[in-house]
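Sample entry (395 residues):
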Amino acid sequence: MVFSFLRWFLPAVLPAVLLVFGVYHTDEEKEPIWLVSLVFFLGALFGGVAFYIEARAAAWTGLDIRASVSGEAGALLFLFAVVAPVREAAKVSATWAAFRTRHFDEPYDGLVYASAAALGFAAVENALLLRAHASGGIWLARAALALPAHLFFACAWGYALGRSRQLKTPGTLFPVTWVGSVAAHGLYIHFVYGRGPGALIATVPLLIGMAGVAWIGARDLRKRSNEGPVSSAPGSGPRISFMPLEALSQPPSLRAVREALRRSEQPVKYRWIAYGALVTLGAMLVGLVLSILFGNWANVDFSLVDEHTVSTTAPVALLGAGLLGAFPVSGYLVARASNARTLLEPALATALALLATLLVLGFAAPMALVFALAFSPIAWGLACAGAWVGRGAKA
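Predicted structure, serialized as tokens:
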């Protein structure tokens, strides 16, 4: 009896606890361990409440997160209208206990407490999952994905909480980041639980993109914590901007990025945004064609793709690699061809190309639209990285 309990309890709770302590020790000014533990416990408690609410909502509406049960439209509606918002709200509720105390006195504390709440939530989710499915590699993979997923989703609005405490003004940053976390969370659930095991591959670019957001936010909040409090007057304090590309010795800060955007002596080159979007679309087409040609040369059978079987996802991974590989190339080409001093033109060009692609997929292949949304953040980041290298080479 005890062994059966520990078999699912320890794999669910122990990794989450270790990650909490890992995040805790990244804070230079350590928070009270009792308060971090309390937020972790509340994250687990509110997680249980969230799952109960989901179960009642599913029974009342007849909807389910699985597309095979509710259909594509029904599953997505249930995910984005009920499941993802309730889960992220549960994490915020757990964090609120610390946010209202005097111990929440630095911007970086937003990430510490948000991470504790998210990992407490993940521990309960994994406990329920592993208890119901004691064996099976696919369920262990889903449990392993839950830890970084919930951590990264919470870091987005945790960043906003840290900034709100520093500026002492609510602003619009928290609701915007919370909605973004809900959207990413909904996509994650759809790929991990709503579809077959083969759809797990779609979580890779989604989590990589969210990891990049979490890393940038943590870096920015740590710097702000070292600087101390700032004025809450309108227009004062550090701003987010696009970094000018002269300083290639280190990654740009969020403040430098926005200051570069505000420079009026260098107007935005709109034609290069349009040209860049066309270049990006062309690069995507070339990348897709090259992937298909390589697959044919390597005897890859693209007709065998089945989301219910993990072993058949190799063709999808090949096509995805070809498409993603096109973005740093297009960003590099746009940056080299234009005379822009910032990343604004390549970034907006990529965003425009992605938007056009999503609109076309929405009409032609709605199912592919969901996967494209998961790939979009990392595609945009790769294009910006290519543009960074291109501008550096020109300078």
